[in-house]
Amino acid sequence: MDKTQAASLISNVREVSPLVHNITNTVVTNFTANGLLAAGASPVMAYAHEEVADMAKIAGALVLNIGTLTNEVVEAMLLAGKAANEMEIPVILDPVGAGATPYRTATARRILKEIDVQYLRGNAAEIANIAGKKWAIKGVDASEGPRNRDSLASKAAMMFGCTVVVTGEIDTISDGSTTIHLSNGHPILTKVTGTGCLLSSLLGAFAAVEPDSLLAAYGALAFYGVASELAAEQTGNRPGSFQIELLNQLSLVTPTQIEENIR
Ligand code: ATP
Ligand code: TZP
Ligand code: MG
Ligand code: MG
User: Fold this and answer.
1) Is-contact 122 98, C-beta < 8 A?
2) I need a surface site. Which of 56, 148, 196, 201 has the fewest CB within 10 A?
3) Each residue of 19-75: pLDDT tens digit?
């Protein structure tokens, strides 16, 4: 993967400022909108059945996040997803908490079946549970399992016909034939809720400006990982300060800093 090209994608996001339509959870709505703005994208949250299709059609990407599901929200996701598919707008699915309850697992699978999803981004337990492998999940947080993330990511990518991003200490991206790893990031990301959800929405912003799925995912993860490292450097072990500083660094980090620090 070309590091220079991947690191430069944030400049395209800042220049184009793509509209990212999020149907997301009630926990992370404000943080997600602020994170997208900080990165240079343009966020919108819209849920009404009367407008979701219209909004999805004018967006650069649609992000579906099942964190606080209701049947009404699921129907909104399907309406928006179908509209996005018609217009060939990339759709990102964050299957928050899949595996924790049968409803979440079934909903994630239903969306993958009925909508042409370009990216599936979650922790290892979520992806494994959707793919039908038992892996313990505590609420919305992954518990570490011994299984091989490479084979999990590539099998899930083939099973669902999309690019799969499995995050954690090491991030794994696979389209079923090529698998890439990144080890940027910082453990304090696990102490702030919504850092995974924000990443999924940022993936939407990158997908809106770069059609190559692997490149866009690599660029988004490198951008986010390096920004989080810079933020942690500034704030130490303080989740509250880190959450704010992450927003600052999402707006400040440069392509050169990203390229020099991709691991
Ligand atoms: P979980 O609920 O399991 O925390 P999530 O949806 O919040 O899942 P994460 O896997 O935490 O998603 O990924 C969000 C970001 O945090 C990614 O950029 C990932 O690289 C980073 N990250 C997660 N865990 C670590 C870690 N231990 N060390 C460094 N970075 C991490
Ligand atoms: N409960 C339902 S959604 C949500 C919680 C705590 C937020 C999960 O955010 P993330 O990004 O997966 O940590
Ligand atoms: Mg996390
Ligand atoms: Mg999550």
Assistant:
1) yes
2) 148
3) 999 999 999 999 999 999 999 999 999 999 999 999 999 999 999 999 999 999 999
Question: For the purposes of burial, counting CB atoms within 10 Å of the CB of 103, is it exposed (0-12), middle (13-18) or buried (19 or more)?
Answer: middle
Residue 50 exposed, middle or buried by CB count within 10 Å (0-12, 13-18, 19+):
exposed
Ligand 1 pocket test: pick from 120, 180, 195 the residue with the most ligand atoms within 8 Å of its Cβ: 195
CB 43 within 8 A of CB 66: no
Please check if 45 is assigned to a binding site. Answer: yes
**Whole-prediction pTM:** 0.96
Pocket of ligand 2 (CB under 6 A): 25, 27-28, 67-68, 96, 140, 193-197
Sketch the domain layout of the chain as residue ranges: 3-261
Q: Please give the CATH topology (third level) of the domain spanning 3-261.
A: UDP-N-acetylmuramoyl-L-alanine:D-glutamate ligase (3.40.1190)
